[in-house]
Amino acid sequence: MSSGMEYVKKAIAGFVVLGSIIIIAFAFWQQGMKYSLRTPVANGYCEALPSEEVQLSPLFENNLSYFLPSHNTACQCPQFNARHIKSLVGNYWGSLPFISVVSELASLKRAKIEFGHDLHYLHDKRHSVAKARGLYSAPQAAIVTSEQKPFYRSNCNRARYCTSRASNFAEVALSALLNEQPAPAFGLSASEAYGCELTQNEIEFF
Amino acid sequence: MAEIALTWEERKRAFQEIKQKSDRIMTVAVIIYFNFGLFLSFFYNTQLIAMTVGGVCLAVCFISRLVLPDATLYQYVLSAVLAIFPAQFIYQMHGLFEMHFFFFVGSALLITFRNWKAFIPMLLFTVVHHVAFAWLQYTGMKEIYFSQLEYMDLQAFIFHALLTAIIMGICAFWAYDLERSTLREVAKTTMLNRQLGNVQRNIAFAEQMSKGNLNADYTVTDESDELGKSLVVMQESLRKSAERELEDRFVTVGVTKVSDIIRNHSNDPITLADEFIKGIVKYTDLNQGALFILEEDDNSTAYLKLTACYAYNRKKHIEMRLNPGEGLVGQCFLEQEEMYLTAVPQHYTKITSGLGEATPTCILVVPVKTQEEVVGVIELAAFKTLKPHEKLFVHKAAENIASAIIAARTTAHIKKLLAESQERTEEMRAQEEEMRQNMEELAATQEEMNRKARETENRINAIEESGIASIEFHPDGTIITANKHFLALMGYAIDEIRGKHHRMFVDAEFALSQEYVDFWNDLRNGVPRPGEYRRVKRSGASVYIKGSYSIIRDQHGRPSRILKLATDITELKMHQKQEGVTGTKEHGTFFTVS
Questions:
Q1: Which of B43, B51, B72, B145 to probe by mutation at the A interface, max A CB count within 10 Å?
Q2: By the CB < 8 Å criterion, does B280 face chain A?
Q3: What integer pLDDT is reported at residue A22 of this predicted model?
Q4: What sign has the CA pseudo-torsion B312, B317, B323, B327?
Q5: ipTM value of the model?
Q6: Is residue B109 a contact partner of residue B102, using CB atoms and an 8 Å limit?
Q7: How far is B281 from chain A (nearest CA, A)?
Q8: Taking CB atoms and an 8 Å limit, are A159 and B142 in contact across chains?
Q9: Tag placement on chain A: N or C end, fewer CB within 10 Å?
C-alpha cells in the first residue's frame, strides 16, 4: 500500500474522530440548552392573585384543597419530575386530593403512565383549569386552598429532575398549606417555567 | 531464554488472533451499549441522544477500524467510546449513579486488547469530563446535572476519582501484564520458529556447500544463530581454500606448461622465446607480451634484446634493443624487482586489433632471473588487472625461463669449451705422434750415430791401432785433443798441448809467415790441406809427417773442427835426403801426396 493512500486513510480516520467528537459534544450541548431555556409564556396567561378566588371545574369540591400537577405531552418536563410527583402523592395522599391537570392537547393515557394511578386526572378541555390556575407548562404545579384561592403556583423544583431537595418548592408549599402557614415566597427560580418548548398551538390556544 | 526483539510483523502476527477475538468482543459490546442506550431512551425520551451520541460512537468505532485495520487507532477510539457511553447513560438516566458501572464494564472490556495505552483515552475523557463538571458545579452552575445528588462534595468526589483510578490502574496493569505475557510467549515461539528456520536454512546451506557450491548466498539474520555464523565462517574458509587451491593449481599447471615449452624447444632459443611468451600471454589471458634477453655486443656492452613478443607494437622498440636502465624494462633489469602499473600513461603502449586500439589497463614488468643472475625482462600488458597468483605464475615462469636461458648458455659454453678441448687434444695427439715419430727418428738417428760413432770409434781405434797420429783443432788453431801416437811423435803430454795453438808445432819463423796465416785461413774456410809437413817436436827436433788437415763441419756445413791425420815420414825423408831426393819443404808441404 502506498504511503499516499495511508495518509489519506489516516486523514479520513482523523476527520471521522474529530467530527464524532463535535457531533457528540453538540448533541449534549443542544440537549442541555434545550431544557435550560425558559418556557415561552402562553398567550393570555394571567397570574392569579392569592386573594382572588378562582373558578375551578365543577368537579372540584369547594371545601377541599387540591394539589394540581400539570402534565403536557408536548413538554418533556413531566417525565423529569414524575418520580417527584409520585413521591408527593405517596407522602401526602390522604391529606388532600391530587389531580393532574392534563392539557387538552396532551395524552391522558401517557399522563397516567408517567404519574401513576394514585392520583386523579383532569383532561382540561379548553384549558379552563389551566387558565384559571395559570398552569401552562410542566414542571409546574398549583395548590388551591379549600377556599378555592390559589395558594401556590410554581415549579416543583429548581432542578430539572427534581433532584435538589432544597428547592422542592411544591412540597414546601404543600407542607405550609397543611400546617396552615402562609404561602412561602420562592422568587423567580420557582415561578419561571423553563425547559419546555410549547408548540405554537399551545401558546396560541392558551 | 533470552529476550528477543520482535519485529513489527512478528508482533502483529502474534496479536493477530487476540486482536480478532477482541474485535469480535468489542463489536458485540458496542452494539449492546448502543442498544442499551436506546433502551434507556424510553425512560426519559432521550432517543435523540441515544441515536445521535450512540450512533456516532458506533459509527466512529467501525469506520476507524475499517479505514485503518492494522493501526491501533480504533482501540483508542473504542476506549473513548466506552467512556462516552456511560456518560450518555448517566445523562439519559438523569444522573443515575449506577450507570457508572458501565465505565467499569468498559474498563474490563478494554483488557481484552492487552494494550495498556488503550486506557489513556478513557482516562482522559473521564478526567476531563469529571473535572470540568465538578469545576462547573463547584463554581455555582446549578444547571449541571452531575449526578442525582444535589451537591457532590469534595470527599465523595475524591473517593469517586480514587476508585476510578484504582479500577483503571488494575485494568491497565492486567492489560500490560497480559501484553507482556503474550509477548514473552510469542518471543519464545518466535525464537523457536527462528531457530527452527535457522536450522533448516543452515541444513540447506550446508548441503549446498557439500555439493561444492561454495558461493551459495547465506545471510545470518539472527544474531543468536551461532551455527549459521560458523557456517558462514566455514564457507569463507572453504572458499578461500578453494580459491587458494585454484590459484596454486593455476600456478602449478602454468609452470608445467612453461616447463614443457622449455623442454620441447630447448634446442632452439628463438622458438623457445616465442613459444614461451605466447604461452604466458595466453595462459594468463593477457593481451600483449615481450621477452627481452640480456646480450652483449662486440664491444662487450650489455644490452636487452627484444627476443620474442606477442601482439607487440614493434614500432615502440623498433631497434629492439634497450640499455640497462632505459625505460621500465631497463629499470626493472637494474633493480631486479617487479614493476606493476595500473595507471598506464596514454601513449606508453597500445594494444591493437583490426578494429582499433586501446591503452592497456595494467603493465607488468618482471625480471627474468634466478637467485643469482638476471638474464632478461618480461613485459606484459592487459586490459584487466592481474591477480596476485597470476603475477606469481609470471615470476615462476620467469625463473624457469631464466634457468633455461642460463642452462642453454652454460651448455653452449661447455660445448664450445669441449670443442676447443677436443681440438686441442687433437692437436696434442698430432704433436705427440709427431714427437713419437721424431723420437723414433731420433732414436734411429741416435742408433745411426751410435753406429757411426762406433764406426768412427772403430775407425779411430783402427787409426790408433794403425799408428797414425791424429790431432784435432778448433778452427782458430787451438788444440782440442791428440792421440797417443801424435803425443809420442811430438814428445808432449796431452795436458801440455790442450788449449794451446798449433803454432807450437812449427818454428817461430814459419808461425809468423803469411803462408802459415793463409794455411789456417784456408782451413777455416773449409779447404782441406793434405800434404807432407815438417813440424817441430818438444825437443826441438824436426819431424816430417805426411797426412791431411781435414775439415769437420757442423750441421750447417760450417767448419767446426780441424782433424789432422799424419804418419811419421821422417826416416823416409831422411833417407830421401840422403839419396838426394829433393822437393820437400822444410816447413810446409814438400809435395802433394795425392
A1: B145
A2: no
A3: 92
A4: negative
A5: 0.71
A6: no
A7: 56
A8: yes
A9: N
Q: Does residue B591 sit at the A interface (CB-CB below 8 Å)?
A: no
The answer to whether the Cβ–Cβ distance between A12 and B60 falls below 8 Å is: no
pTM for this prediction: 0.51
Query: Which range has the top average pLDDT, A72-81, B206-215, B343-352?
Result: B206-215
pLDDT digits (tens, 9 = 90+) for A84-119: 788 888 888 778 888 877 776 677 787 788 778 888
Grid cell digits, residue B359: 591503452
pLDDT tens sequence across B25-81:
999 999 999 999 999 988 877 888 999 999 999 999 999 988 888 888 889 999 999
The three-point CA angle B182-B183-B185 to 5° equals: 65
How does B409-425 read in b/e, with b if 16+ C-beta sit within 10 Å?
Answer: eeeeeeeeeeeeeeeee
**What is the reported pLDDT for A54?**
59
Torsion sign over Cα B317, B322, B328, B332: positive
Report residue B383 as a C-alpha cell.
586490459
Is A163 in Cβ contact with B149 (below 8 Å)? yes
Partner-chain contact B64 A13, CB within 8 Å: yes
List, as one string, the DSSP characters of A14-80.
HHHHHHHHHHHHHHHHHHHHHTTSBPPPPTT--PPPTTS-----TTS-TT--EEEEEE-TT-SHHHH
**Residue B593 pLDDT greater than 70, yes or no:** no
* CA–CA gap between residue A74 and residue B410 (Å, rounded): 136
What would the grid cell of residue A139 be? 414542571
Residue pair A118/A90 in contact by the 8 Å Cβ criterion: yes
